[in-house]
Amino acid sequence: MKLTILGCHSATPRDNKHTTSQLLDVQGKLFLIDCGEGTQLQLRKSKVKFSRIKHIFISHLHGDHFYGLIGLISTFRLLGRTAPLTIYGPKGIKEIITLQLKLAKSWTDYELFFKELDAKVSEIIYEDEVLSVRTLPLDHRVYTNGFLFTTKSVHRKIIKEAVEGLNLSPFHFQQLQEGKSIKLTDGQVIENKVLTQDPDPAKQYAFCSDTAFNKALVPHIKGVDLLYHESTFLEQHLELAAKTKHSTAKQAAKIAQNAQVKKLILGHFSNRYSDYKAFIEEAQPIFENVQLAEDLKSFSI
Amino acid sequence: MKLTILGCHSATPRDNKHTTSQLLDVQGKLFLIDCGEGTQLQLRKSKVKFSRIKHIFISHLHGDHFYGLIGLISTFRLLGRTAPLTIYGPKGIKEIITLQLKLAKSWTDYELFFKELDAKVSEIIYEDEVLSVRTLPLDHRVYTNGFLFTTKSVHRKIIKEAVEGLNLSPFHFQQLQEGKSIKLTDGQVIENKVLTQDPDPAKQYAFCSDTAFNKALVPHIKGVDLLYHESTFLEQHLELAAKTKHSTAKQAAKIAQNAQVKKLILGHFSNRYSDYKAFIEEAQPIFENVQLAEDLKSFSI
């Protein structure tokens, strides 16, 4: 998996400070998470072929997380998109988007599906052959979900050196990936374990924005490879964080520590701060492997 | 009046190619015309104190003319705005905006008014002591209005040299502006025409985007000081212009010529063109005083 931060700032977009959006590349499949105003411009800057996005996950209906969605949907239409697109987000998102398409007399030529969410417990909302996506109920001023992306470890890994010179067919490769032994054209049978090794372990990415400090989250994200957790504030604004149901950098670090995740990324910074080093300084004593999100920065998982 | 182009490109925003929005300063009062995605960032770049905007005019409900409106309304709230704001736009705009504010549980703390438009004839939709705003029915794929801004010539102009040494009170100045003669403290009466001259003539700005070539527009914009007319296409794409109900640069020039306006600005350029000189070359043989719109360029009226 490769995560690209398109925007990691809160509330209002500024020049070079974009509101929340992230692009997750899972073995070549692109998933968009949140879509603040101007996300389509950030996607252009990221140089990815963003018409390949087929699934968009919206955490909640505050503007800094979804005001760019209607523009992206419209741009897909203007670019001649034909592939279906599915939007996952809180109940109401379908009405907001379809009302605007209706009044503009600009229905998409591609199929547009909505999966509206209202469950208060974690549920699987997407699944294919390579990954599953599960909601992470968060504690914010409006109904909000984080998202847990888990890759599947289904295929055994073929040992390149072992199969060299065997002149295997695609069918042979499929059998090997599925853990079966194979029979060559000369009748010789080769056991699976000679030619393959165990699959890579599953990888997990947890996206958690926006939320108050919420210990109930910990069991859901136990040991994930990468956790993005919002840290709108520093501890000096702890009361404001509580009032607005956001987190501080220290609180984000505590969640990461309790959940024993492998790595933490902080983001969703309030516009009141200009120096972000303080976020690291506050989080690192509690959870060492922490980094700051940055617009257009990528992280490998 | 001073007009600042915030965006003058059509369809989809690109880096350094912003979709339609304009700011009109009339004697210190700010009026916003259309509000494509990212307009709030362009307003920041323009360095105007944009919290002073009290009236926003939306021509039609295509995304490149209003997808930035909800974000601007939200940003006004986050910046602590208290002054009322009025939105003028096609029927349906109130539902689009209020639905999003409701679902975000983010009602504005300031008063937000809507004047929804559905008339098919030109009507006055705003009037104060310095100007009036009138709709200009346009011919597009959805219900669309242009807007005609007309300043009022009500106050006679005081001749600075003539009043020097007379030690006039503010009340005297008011009487002179209203065309009255004045009585000095020593009982001397001075006739108005000795101290004043005729008011500046009214100034007119006509905004016309988006529209097919539409001769019915001509009588409404006769002799205006400045006409912004869309020219999405060049003549080589005349058929496409007709099909999508847009205009070519040549057609815009014909409207300017027929209406005998003083100056024409072209804009709403399609993304298919990279060299905009061709727009001038096409328009100028028909109407000489023509200029191109440019993002963040200002024009005095």
Word description of this protein:
2 copies of one chain form a homodimer. Chain A is an alpha/beta fold and 301 residues long. Chain A has 2 domains: 2-153 and 200-293, Ribonuclease Z/Hydroxyacylglutathione hydrolase-like (Metallo-beta-lactamase, Chain A, 4-Layer Sandwich), CATH 3.60.15; 157-197, no CATH class. Chain A has 10 helices and 18 strands. Chain A has helices spanning 39-46, 63-66, 69-78, 93-103, 160-163, 170-177, 192-195, 238-244, 249-258, 277-283, and strands at residues 2-7, 21-26, 29-33, 53-57, 85-90, 112-117, 124-127, 131-137, 145-151, 157-158, 182-183, 189-190, 196-197, 204-208, 226-230, 264-267, 290-292, 298-300. In chain A, the strands form 4 sheets. Chain A has a 7-stranded mixed beta sheet. In chain A, strands 7-8-9-14-15-16-17 form a 7-stranded mixed beta sheet, covered by helices on one side. In chain A, strands 10-13 form a two-stranded antiparallel ribbon. In chain A, strand 16, helix 10 and strand 17 (290-292) form a beta-alpha-beta unit. In chain A, helix 9 (249-258) packs across helix 10 (277-283). Chain A is globular, with a radius of gyration of 22 Å. The model of chain A has no long low-confidence stretch (mean pLDDT 96). At the A-B interface, helix 1, helix 3 and helix 4 of A face helix 1, helix 3 and helix 4 of B.
